[in-house]
Amino acid sequence: MKNWVKxxxxxxxxxxxxxxxxxxTVVAKSDYIAGQKLPKKPTIxxxxxxxxxxxxxxxxxxxxxxDKARAAYTRWNKAAKKAGYRFEAFSTYRxxxxxxxxxxxxxxxxGRKAADRYSARPGFSEHQTGLAFDIGETKRPSEYxxxxxxxxxxxxxxxxxxxxxxxxxxxxxxxxxxxGYMYEPWHFRYVGKTAATKIYKEKLxxxxxxxAK
Length: 213
Hints:
Elements: E1 14-16, E2 21-22, E3 43-45, E4 48-51, H1 67-82, E5 87-91, H2 96-110, H3 112-118, E6 132-137, H4 148-151, H5 153-161, E7 167-171, H6 176-179, E8 184-190, H7 193-201, H8 206-211
Parallel strand pairs: 2-3
Antiparallel strand pairs: 1-4, 3-4, 5-6, 6-8, 7-8
């Protein structure tokens, strides 16, 4: 994931606060279903949109960047500045078409098996919800979409404070078998303060949190 400025081919699991289809089941497997077709409506559980390798979005789903998530991020970044850090949200909303281009480029470069560990297939990306924010330090753009961010003081601060503003680290370390994606300390997902706080304090994945509903 070496591209940035709203073009990083990060992830494809998705959860959000918008959508139309209600369900009480959560798929927590970490691989795609062969031949699966995209749905006509997104999957929503308790007001949170879920997207992962077995729960895709419609190709037509195009809400743009969430105003609510952006406002929460702005407050979070303001707190970061007071703590001595400056963040850049280098990739947020990404359309189905843009994700398709990115994913195909990664497959051409690294092969499908490798690409599936760090990039979502079109229709399976969290960025398509407009609720995912990839962040990094403004002074270290070469480390955007890098695990180095998680080793820095700024990354550790972000991981500890995200829930206060309604964000979660969507792909935590050691949870690849559940989320389907490699550890991404830069990828944060807006789910609202209540859900984010519970997920953070109980060290849950989004899948585990929604499965308990």
